[in-house]
Amino acid sequence: MNTFAAFARKDYLNLETFRKNGTGVKTPVWFVQDGDVIYVRTIANSGKIKRIHNTSLVNIAPCAMDGALLGEWQPATAREIKDANANQKVDRLLDAKYGLMKKVFAVASTLQGHQYTVLEITSRH
User: Fold this and answer.
1) pLDDT (tens digit per residue) in 74-93
2) For the chain, first and last CA: distance in Å?
3) Contact call for residues 12 and 69 (beta carbons, < 8 A)
4) Which pTM does this prediction carry?
5) Contact (Cβ atoms closer than 8 angstroms) between residue 116 and residue 49
6) In what side-by-side order are the strands of the sheet with 57-63?
7) What is the pLDDT of residues 4-22, one digit of tens each?
8) Distance CA 125, CA 123 (A)
9) How far is CA 101 from the centre of its chain?
10) 32 CB-contact burial (10 Å; exposed 0-12 / middle 13-18 / buried 19+)
11) For an engineered disulfide with 59, which of 16, 87, 90, 97 has Cβ 3.0 to 4.6 Å away?
12) What domains sit in the chain, N to C, each tagged with a CATH number?
């Protein structure tokens, strides 16, 4: 059984990370799925990375581009992975899923000088 079946054929997930004081911060993001693992590419020094370094416990839910939920929240664990092979795999999966939109976004981000990292999200169930 696929733990993250609710995310099949969805373009966005809402990622809720937590501040040190316990306040949740919800962010709609692009994602790719590989079996029972979800990957998110994000800016390396973003707030969500800092919050995940503080606590790996997150909640995720399928959502629309604006963050409106399209399903139930699921408890999950997130960690930053710094592995060139994983980064290349996630890049290929993102290309396959988002196509030209991803390529345009990548060029714009590179021009802005952003450095990216990958989050690996697994179920807490």
Assistant:
1) 999 999 998 888 888 988 88
2) 12
3) no
4) 0.87
5) no
6) 24-30, 12-18, 57-63, 74-81, 116-123, 37-43, 32-34
7) 889 989 999 999 999 999 9
8) 5
9) 17
10) buried
11) 16
12) 5-123 (2.30.110.10)
Task: Please give the torsion angle defined by the CA atoms of residues 36, 99, 65 and 15, in that order, rounded to the nearest 10 degrees.
Answer: 30
Element (H, E) at 32: strand 32-34
Enter the tokens of residue 56.
Answer: 């790996």
Quick one: which of 62, 58, 60, 65 has its CA closest to 8?
62
Q: Six-digit token pair at 91?
A: 């890049």
Alpha helices in the chain (DSSP H): 47-54, 84-111
CB atoms within 10 A of CB 16: 18
Contact 119, 39 (CB under 8 A): yes
Q: How do residues 47-73 score in pLDDT, each as one tens digit?
A: 999 999 999 999 999 999 999 999 999
